[in-house]
Amino acid sequence: MKFLVINGPNLNLLGLREPEIYGRQDFAALQQFVRDAAAEAGVEVELFQSNHEGAIVDTIQEAYGKADGIVINPAAYTHTSVAILDALKAVALPAVEVHLSDVSKRESFRQVSYAGLACVKTYMGLGFEGYRRAILFLRDFCEGEVKRA
Ligand code: CA2
Prior knowledge:
five-stranded parallel sheet; 17% strand
């Protein structure tokens, strides 16, 4: 089983500012955490980060036929991008949304999630742990899909 883990704009700057919201660990630590979580779950993982909406759309499209599921933190594009929502719907792969912070308790403009409309589950406010839960959920979800088929 292979999952694509996508991180959106500015997450590559983790650890540099706003540690009270996003924690003190940097993006390299997040990538290692995700690799370790995938190993624990017994799944393969491919990591992708971009600051560009179109690059994220391209990567979601390319996942079709290659990945079994997607874990995505679209960052600021969560709240603006119909293009990412449409790409997730188009490939129709099971997707799980992750946010490091609890966006439900933040500014009103963060209360809408377009990408979330195409996701089977959302984890927020758990920091890095949200990615681990997402991978484990997606593995169990995909195994269930296989059993039901
Ligand atoms: O909580 C999350 O994971 C977010 O997706 C993070 C986004 C934000 O726009 C979403 O509303 C919630 C922002 C990521 C920016 O990361 C930074 C990294 C270093 C310094 C400042 C921000």
